[in-house]
Amino acid sequence: MRSWFKHTAPEAAPTSGADIENAPIVIKGLNHWFGRGEARKQALFDVDLTIERGKLVILMGASGSGKTTLLTLAGCLRDVQDGSAKLLGDELNGASEDLLVACRRRLGFIFQAHNLHESLTAMQNVRMGLEVHGPQARKDWQTPASHLLSLLGLGDRLDYLPGNLSGGQKQRVAVARALVGNPDMVFADEPTAALDKESGHQVVSLLKRLGTERNTTTLMVTHDNKVLELADRIITMEDGRIVRDES
After folding, report:
1. CA–CA gap between residue 15 and residue 53 (Å, rounded)
2. Among 54, 89, 135, 238, which one is most buried in terms of CB atoms within 10 A?
C-alpha cells in the first residue's frame, strides 16, 4: 500500500486531446431517469464533463439539480442508462459487476452520514476502509490509520468508540476511513455538513493536499460556501444540466 504524502505529483503538462481522454472522469451525453411509466422523470440532460487528474472539483446547485445523481453515476454507485461515463479509463455504461467492483476498490467515498460501526473504536472503523485491499494492507493498517486520524485532529481519540465521540468527530473518522486506502479518486457528498467551520476546512484542505501531493482527484457535492476557496473548479448544476463551470 502506498504511504501517505511521500509521493510528488508529476509536473502538470499542457492539456491535449489525449490528456482529456485519459482523465479520471470523462462523461459525454449522459442522461438519467428515475421511475417508470407516467412517473418517469429525467434527472440529467445530455451532460458532458471532463475532470483532470489531481483536481478538487466542487458540484453545487439547489436540491434536485442533479448533482448527487451525477456524482453517484460517476462513482459507479448507480447504473449508467444512456451516454458514456468513463472512470479511470473504464467505460461504466454496460460494465460488468466484476469491473464495477474493481473500479470501486480504487475509490474513496465520503457521505454526510458517517455510518460507523458502534462496537468498533475509531482506529478499527478506519481499518474497515482497507477490507477490499487485501491481506497485506490489512496487516499494515495501524500506522496509516493513526496518521490520518491525527491529521484530522483525532490523535487523542484513537481508541474511542463512536458513542463517546461528537457528531463532527464521527464524521472525521468516516473521512479517515475513506482515505486510508489511498484511493485514486474521492467522491464526497456533503462531507462537511456535520462539521463546524474549522473542522470542515480541515477536511477539505486534506483533500486538496491529496491532489497536490498524490495526484488524487476529488469530486465533491457541497452547499458549504466556506470551503469554495479551496476548489480548483466549481461546477454549478440546475435542472439536470451544467449551467456554470468556473476554474
Report:
1. 11
2. 54
Angle between helices 197-214 and 167-179 (to 10 degrees): 10
Question: Which amino acid is located at 87 in the chain?
Answer: L
> What residues does each domain of the chain span?
54-78+106-246
Q: How many CA atoms lie within 13 A of 62 on its CB side?
A: 4
Provide the grid cell at 208: 486538496
Angle at 40 between CA 38 and CA 46, to 5 degrees: 140
Residue length of the chain: 247
CA–CA separation, 57 and 75 (whole Å): 14
Q: Rounded to an integer, what distance in angstroms lies between the CA atom of residue 122 and that of residue 130?
A: 14
Dihedral over alpha carbons 155, 161, 165, 167 (to 10 degrees)? 110
> Is the CB of residue 66 less than 8 Å from the CB of residue 44?
yes
Q: Which CATH architecture has domain 54-78+106-246?
A: 3-Layer(aba) Sandwich (3.40)
198-231 pLDDT per residue, tens: 989 999 999 999 999 989 999 999 999 999 999 9
